[in-house]
Amino acid sequence: MPITAILIGAGQRGALDYAPYALQHPDELRFVAVAEPVAERRQRFAQQHSLPPENVFESWEPLLACPKMADAALVCTQDQQHTAPALAALQAGYDVLLEKPMATRREECLQLVETAEALGRQLHICHVMRYTRHAQIIRQIIQSGELGEIINVDHRENVSYWHMAHSYVRGNWANAAQSSPMILAKCCHDFDILLWWLGQRCERLSSVGGLRHFRPENAPPGAPGRCLDGCPAEKTCPYYAPFIYLDLAPLWRSFASTASGFPRKVMQANLRSPGLIKALGGVIPLLRQVSEYRGWPRSVVAGDPTPENVLQALRHGPYGRCVYHCDNDVVDHQSVLMQFEGVSRPT
Fold first, then answer.
1. Distance CA 113, CA 122 (A)
2. Alpha-carbon span 266 to 263, nearest angstrom
């Protein structure tokens, strides 16, 4: 019998990253209900997973007020909206898979853990880095003792320039008051992986950082508020919205640098001759996946991410704004020092 689940928050992570597993492996996972405030997302998820109308909700409160209808709850709301539905799901009898970061306040993290332990429920956080092959190999090497005693770790989270612009300047995590600071939104992965690798707790921490580049005074001369409003730097600016979301050049370059074999050759060819790849896509399914790509980041820009819909969204939506004229206030650089247990202190 498959695990049954309810989904709270049918956005990018919930509906497009995690839930598709149920469609690919119906013998292992099946969704029976959803709560999502955006009608388009809610209806699309209900249709994809064949949910009855009575199991489709605009918010999580009426869903969790119903008698328990599944084994697990996936809570994939925005960062500041994690704690309340996760606590309610635990109290309603569900095991919970909670999107990272766990919460935005220390006391809420403790409350979640204490509630899960008191009720005997499973509470898992989506720190997906633990499941990547390279992270597992690094942990095996460190834990084996092959490297000897670990005195210092130099770890970097290099967010690519266009991912930075997409998520932390134009996107949902650009404003700390509306989401969470970057050290939680992005670097909770790094904190988790370091503790997992080393098998030690952090005893002391210090941090400095700030917002230096994505500010109005750094905009190209004459840059308007939106990229498509006649920006004089459109041919040279690496953050030009059509370059990122219509051409998808940064995405294909990333794939071309990490893929191997035939997929890599396809990505390289697409960068050189996108028209050719589109023409050949009519007869070669793999090439059609490239020429008609509908995944991230396009899937965030428009619900139905056709080129026409993406262009319309760039004209009017948040992802078409000039990166130097947004309401962002999270850091674009930050350094953190962590001291782990077992380190001797000077006397």
1. 10
2. 5
C-alpha 175/C-alpha 14 separation (Å) is: 21
Mutual angle of helices 106-119 and 83-91, in 10-degree steps: 10
Residue 157: name the closest of 145, 168, 149 by CA: 168
Structure confidence at residue 160 as a pLDDT band (50, 70, 90) = very high
Is the predicted pLDDT of residue 346 greater than 60, yes or no? no
- Per-residue pLDDT of 100-135, as tens digits, reads 999 999 999 999 999 999 999 999 999 999 999 999
Domains and their CATH numbers in the chain: 3-126 (3.40.50.720), 130-214+330-340 (no CATH), 216-320 (no CATH)
CA 250/CA 255 separation, integer angstroms: 9
Measured CA distances, 181 to 175, 178, 274, 330 (Å):
8, 9, 38, 6
C-alpha separations of 12 from 78, 86, 299, 300, 308 in Å: 11, 18, 7, 7, 20
* Contact by Cβ (8 Å): 218, 324: yes
Sign of torsion, CA 215 217 218 219?
positive
pLDDT single digits (tens) 290-333: 778 899 999 999 989 999 999 999 999 999 999 999 999 999 99
The CB density around residue 346, as the number of other CB atoms within 10 Å, is: 3
Q: Look up the pTM and report it.
A: 0.89
